[in-house]
Structure formats: structure tokens, C-alpha cells
Amino acid sequence: MWKIGIVVTDPPEYKQIFQYMVEKYNFPQKGSPEEKFWVDDLEDNQYKRLKGPVSDQKIDFSSPEDAAERIRTFAKTAGADIIGFTKVLPMMVFKGAKVKEKYAVVIGYEMDHEAIDSAPDPPAGKEALRAYWRIGSVIMKTAEFIRSMGYPATGHQVRTFTNDPPTILNPVAGLHAGLGEMGMLGILITPEFGPRIRLATITTDLKLPQGKQIDLGVQDFCKRCFICADECMGEAISREKKDERGFYKFTIDPYKCLPEFAKYDGCGVCIQVCPFNRKKEDMERFLVGVERLNEYFRLHPEKTPRRR
Prior knowledge:
Oligomer: single chain
Helix content: 40-55%
Number of strands: 8
Number of helices: 11
Distance between the termini: 23 Å
């Protein structure tokens, strides 16, 4: 797991990656009517509704857990697959971004297993774009719902196609909300869908409970697996952990990743080959196997497979 208990005050720095993709690779290509509609809807409709007026009729809740359950039920109805809650912490907020609210709702949306299994062919990239569009709709509506109950709420969708920089580092928010564990491929690994997930966040002043980080055995598994690093066509995934802003983790070189990502209009090979990329009904049994395998190698470190 990432180092637990370390107070990190240094916020992540946005490196203009999305602008780089648009300017250098004209990404996304909007190759189909659906993709054009999704991108236009994200830019012209959803982003404008991530903020809005707050009702002057405030609903009182008996506890943060009561408020969380009301939001969870609504978000599920709106299309969310997983929902978690956390306080807004400095390491979640990009440097220079202004986030006034104190609490966060982190929402995950599953990407289709069959489409992702086609990576790097176009169905995978198209599915990732569809997931961004769908989760954008979910957080837009859920933020509006929270505001209708009398509390400020701001949606934080990934600003993939606009000039506005991102505000929340969603995988870190998901980590602290207890939705999953960070994997070598730089994506949150969830117990329901593995890395086959897209995340977005809502911040609010409605008091919500603090989630607990979970240990799925991902870090122990990743340090013996390396299949995502082996299969990455851009060789963008590090094989050694680095201490970055207080976190000891694997890192991704975006400038090695993006040329391949743009070539296929959304690559997805690292997600496709990840052993945690399994159908939801298979995940529980797989995670039991991961726990047993990790324990075996802890007891018999000399049996650890050789890396490439």
C-alpha cells in the first residue's frame, strides 16, 4: 500500500498533459457519431452544470453516515457502480486549484469487460470515452441533488478536452475513500472491477464519513507480476518504486504513454492485460487466490519469479 499515516501537504502538479494530447495528437479523434456526441456533451453541457445554485431549504441529517447513505442511494440510481466518501485532503487537489468544500464523494463507473479486452483496438478507447461521458452525467446529477438538499456541491470531472485544468486527482481520492488500491499501472484497482473503472469526484460541505483505505494485496502482487510494464508498447510503466510526494509507488511516464495512447485513440493495453481485470462475479474468488499467492511468496521469497 502507499505509506499510511504520513501527512502530505504537497499537492500534485498538473503538467498540461491534456493540452499536450490535443495540440500534438489532435486527441480525441471523434471518429464516430457517438464519440462526437459524447465529447460535445461533455464540453457543452456537463462541464457547465458541475456547479450551480444551492437550495435555501436545507435538509438535516442525523449523522454523516445517514447523509452518505442518501447520496449513495441516489448515485446508484443515477448510474454509479461504486461510491465512497472521504475528507478533501491536500494530496487530492491539484496545485493552483481552488476547492473550498471539505468533504468528497468519489464515484466509479465500470467499463465494459468485452470492449476493454479488445485493447489496443478502437472498441477499448471508445469504451473509455463512453465511460467518461456516463460518469460525467452521474456526478453532474448527483451534485445537483446535493445542492437541492441545501448544501454546496461541485463536480470534478476529468477535464480531458477543455482548456480548464483538472482540480481533483481522482485515483488518490478513490484510494482515501476506500474504493481500491493503487496498482503498478497507475490506476486504482477495485475489488469489484479491478482497474476497469473510471472515477470522478464531487466535493461538498455536507458532512460525510471518512472511508478507510483497503488492502487487496495489489502492491505485493504487482511487485512480482510486471505484465503491464512488459506489455506497455511505450515502455511507460516503471519497474521500480519511487518516493513521490511522500508516497512510495510505481510511476508512469506520460510522455512515453501518450504517443501510443493517441495512436489507438485510447490504448488500454495495461488495463486489458492486468490479472485483476476480471468480471465482477469472478473477483471474489480471484482475490482469495491473490491472498494465498502473496502469503506463499512471503513465506518462500526464494521462489519469487524472475523479472524480465
